[in-house]
């Protein structure tokens, strides 16, 4: 994969994924959506729309899952009560936004032709994104990288640790995926700036 680039004629952002890459990205986005939605309280769908809009009964404590705690850090580290109030008013909306961004990746890959189940090797998919959608993907790449880094225990300055692992080590392979998502994000940022 060559990463994202700006299409000269349309001005849109394009990338070409192999079937494996597209399926991997869809799987990562799907796992993120599942994590975000399974931990959140799902309100009843039969509520009045205004009532739903004004519902500020979100969580008041930090999530127990380390990935969710990283995605939704405490706004007030030294003030538990203020942090709880802030979380109550914001976390549900933030969760929904992050889940929608990950779904945008899934939808974009499927609109590009990725079948519900990839059964054939050698397929390639051209994904073309307008600027607004590209920005949504970029935000979701940030969430995916944070999730992967948290699960792997990636820290600043620990590159030697990862590069010393043998290629067949599952942690090394997971770290390669983390770096690949970083590459996607970097090329997408560059394409948006071009």
Q: How many distinct helices?
A: 7
The count of β-strands is 3
Overall geometry: globular
Mean pLDDT: 88
Order of helices and strands: EEHHHHEHHH
The count of domains is: 1
Distance between the termini: 19 Å
User: What is the CA-atom radius of gyration, in angstroms?
Assistant: 19 Å
Q: Show unreliable segments.
A: 40-44
Structural class call reads: mainly alpha
- How large is the share of residues in beta strands? 5-15%
Helix content: 55-70%
Strand order of the largest sheet: 1-2-3
Instruction: Give the biggest beta sheet.
Output: 3 strands, antiparallel
Description:
It is built from seven helices and three strands, in the order E-E-H-H-H-H-E-H-H-H. It is mainly alpha-helical and 194 residues long. The protein has a three-stranded antiparallel sheet with strand order 1-2-3. The longest helix is centred in the middle third of the chain and has 32 residues, at 80-111. Residues 40-44 have low confidence and may be disordered.
């Amino acid at each position: 994969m060559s990463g994202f680039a700006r299409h000269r004629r349309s001005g849109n952002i394009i990338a070409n994924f192999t079937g494996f890459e597209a399926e991997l990205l869809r799987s990562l986005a799907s796992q993120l959506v599942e994590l975000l939605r399974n931990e959140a309280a799902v309100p009843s769908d039969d509520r009045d729309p205004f009532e739903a809009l004004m519902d500020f009964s979100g969580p008041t404590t930090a999530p127990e899952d380390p990935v969710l705690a990283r995605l939704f850090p405490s706004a007030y580290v030294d003030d538990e009560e203020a942090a709880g109030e802030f979380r109550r008013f914001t976390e549900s909306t933030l969760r929904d936004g992050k889940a929608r961004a990950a779904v945008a990746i899934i939808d974009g890959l499927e609109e590009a032709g990725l079948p519900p189940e990839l059964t054939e090797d050698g397929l390639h998919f051209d994904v073309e994104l307008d600027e607004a959608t590209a920005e949504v993907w970029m935000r979701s790449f940030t969430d995916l990288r944070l999730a992967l880094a948290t699960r792997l225990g990636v820290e600043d300055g620990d590159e030697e640790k990862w590069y010393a692992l043998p290629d067949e080590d599952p942690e090394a392979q997971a770290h390669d995926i983390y770096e690949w998502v970083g590459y996607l994000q970097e090329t997408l940022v560059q394409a948006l700036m071009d």
